[in-house]
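Hey, quick one: can you model this chain's 3D structure?
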Amino acid sequence: MTHQRNHDNLWQRVRKLKKVAPEEIIELAFSVRASAASVTLNLDKWTLSGHLEKTDAGYRLVKDSREAPIVRADGTVMVRDSGQQRMWRILQVRGRATISELIMYGSLENNPVSRDGAVTFAKYLEYAGYLRRAARTPKGARFAFERATFILIKNTGPVAPQITRAKEGRGKEVYDRNLRKTVWTTEKGMVEA
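Sure thing. Here's the predicted structure for all 193 residues.
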């Protein structure tokens, strides 16, 4: 299980529990497949950011949010804005895009989207059933994939699906953070709910 998934799962458990007593930390860590030290670190960061309050009885949720806050050690909240997230927003707004458009509209001056990054994003979202090619270029045409227009056909929410290394075996997987589940893997293809 990836660090990001542990982080998200921990936040969802805290939201559900509303309170976490010190004696519940080990059980909570086990349930999200993380170490007790990692769970405590996240709880302390969320306390610094104002999402939790630390009391004698443990931690109490005071500021809820759908997504797990990413908090720096000093308590400031980081904004999630990866290249994948920007490309996902482009597809949501426009409904379709080419690789060149994903690169052009998804790049920031200090954080550009690479051609390889855009191709990987589109390729795996196509495998996972989120994108469909509008029109294929003739077979054997050079760079056919990069010239294709991709249409968004599965919009599960505001957060971009993540393309990550598979947790088991080799290859990649597509994890949908809106659905909180793996939807496609290199080894298994589409994953049933």
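One thing worth noting: The chain has a mean pLDDT of 86.
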